[in-house]
Amino acid sequence: MSQNRPPIGRQSKPSFARQVMPAVALTAVGVGFVSMLDGSTAGSVGLTDATTNPVVDPNTPTTIVADPSTTAPVAQPTNTTLAPTPVPATATPVTAAPVTAAPANPGACDGDVVASPSAQFRYGVIQLQTQFTKANVLCNVTVLQFPNDRRTSVQINNYALPIYNQEAAKIHSAKIRAVSGATYSWQAYVAALQAVLDSRP
Amino acid sequence: MTIALNHKFVAKAMGTAASLHIDDVCDAEVAEQAWRSVVDLLWGIEQKFSTFIETSEISRISRGELHLLDASREVIEVFDACTWLEHASNGAFRARRPDGTLDPAGFVKGWATQRASRLLTEQGLNNWYLSVGGDIQTAGRQSSGELWSVGIVDPTDDQQVRCIVEIPEGFAIATSGVAARGRHIWDGRTDQFVSPLLSFSVVGPDLMWADAFATAGFVMGAQGSIWVEGFDRYQAIAISAQG
């Protein structure tokens, strides 16, 4: 048994220079990374815990179903104005939503596109883009800005380990091969992320 | 005979799911045989240690039918390690329930997974990971040549990954948290089930210790990371609620 035991305690501390060096080097790398990723997509992997509000990649907008009652939980907070009264087209949409060039049709979702003001919610800043039919019926909601994951903070004392913050990214990230978390029961396994990884070819 | 690059297996073991991913180019039969040996070992350990099985040695010890010193070598080994850990963690880790009955479950899973891992190495496999309920021992790398990357589950949403860790070759990772089974970790010092943390992961060379340190470190809360990092090559990742 005893040969399995890890050594307890550190015998001596590394010199001050050796303690500071990695921090300096990592900061330089971090600055490089941030400048590289600046303006890039949300959910990018970075070495620093990005506290800036990510803007959702305009090329891949998260689209929510047309029915306004199903826009929860994002649209749930009452301080967003989702009233089906389109603001005149002076409001500049943040992204060019993929407006379908469908023929004129009263039910078609081809009316005004309006970006809501960014609103601060409990979990961060949310900005929505809404679209209306010609009859001023809300038909499409796109999330332009989604909160960064601010509910939790990740703390790691020593940066010897390659660790990346994953912001609001799903398991579909090709990078991950396994997941570690609080133990799931056999019954819960089916719903656990590990099951996705086990079944993926 | 079928040669393949990736082999994946899942089975029920120790009350959870055991998953094995082998990224070696090998015969499917070789991979399957290795997997069967892993499952047999895990099931055998479960028969000895489960508190849910009436005839297990642990149940018999708890009922007073078997003295600890008359137990099998494995049971004595586990309790030896648990005793050491109780001291090393200053009581934060305990292999007894608040009512006094033995429950080394917090230690056995990681210990069993590490033992099962040895079988894979003995059978000549070099690149794989074995996960038992999220306690993971790795060997080598992925077939892509990258290190095994493990997502740590967001404790506030178990369908999301909070961060990704690249596991150094041959290292293990284990996580303790509140998410899946509720608050199942108690503080041996106060007999209460509490922690200011949401989850606590430990990466290190041996899964048995990574798992045990995760359990103890989670209970310690803010001091857990510092305690874990006092052990050479062990590293902690704590996730807490942001106020």
From TrEMBL, chain A:
Residues 52-63, 77-89 have a biased composition (Low complexity). GO terms for cellular component: membrane. One of its GO terms (molecular function) is FMN binding. Residues 52-89 are annotated as: Disordered. This is Unannotated protein. It comes from freshwater metagenome. The lineage of its organism: unclassified sequences, metagenomes, ecological metagenomes.
Automatic annotation (TrEMBL), chain B:
InterPro entries: ApbE (IPR024932), ApbE-like_sf (IPR003374). Its EC number is 2.7.1.180. The keyword Metal-binding applies. Its cofactor is Mg(2+). It catalyses: L-threonyl-[protein] + FAD = FMN-L-threonyl-[protein] + AMP + H(+). Keywords: FAD, Flavoprotein, Magnesium, Metal-binding, Transferase. The keyword Disulfide bond does not apply. PANTHER family: FAD:PROTEIN FMN TRANSFERASE, THIAMINE BIOSYNTHESIS LIPOPROTEIN APBE. This is FAD:protein FMN transferase.
